[in-house]
Amino acid sequence: MKSLNRPTLLVTAARLALPGYSREKELPRLLNTPNVPGRNQCILKLMELESELNAQRRAKDPVYGPARHVKILSALMHESQHPRAPKRRQLKASATSDFLRAI
């Protein structure tokens, strides 16, 4: 996100929208797909959409929607800052029981 140069108001609005962002709810709507693609695919598609919206904004295109731009920026911020949690390794039963006995 640091390489993007966008108006402060737009970026501030996107940051304020982050706490209410729900990946499972927002991404299918924003990407117009029933399934949420992988993180890298999401980021690439969101960057493409954001670039198109920014071009519309700069051209003062009447179809430009700042609310959608804020949502796309917010999703892009979230996806780039919050990688999915790695799968947890499961402990072997013997290691767990040894640990419990040591307590």
Description:
With 103 residues, this protein is mainly α. The chain is built from five helices and no strands. Helix 1 (8-17) crosses helix 4, helix 2 packs across helix 4 (66-81) and helix 3 packs antiparallel against helix 4.
Low-confidence stretches: none
Instruction: Report the total helices.
Output: 5
Estimate the global geometry from the Cα principal axes.
globular
Radius of gyration: 20 Å
Share in β-strands: under 5%
Q: Level of helix content?
A: 55-70%
Q: Average pLDDT value?
A: 84
Number-wise, the strands total 0
User: Span between N and C termini?
Assistant: 46 Å
Strand-and-helix sequence, N→C?
A: HHHHH
Summarize this, please?
With 103 residues, the protein is mostly helical. It has 5 helices and no strands.
Topology:
Elements: H1 8-17, H2 23-31, H3 39-58, H4 66-81, H5 93-102
Features:
103 residues; mainly alpha; 63% helix
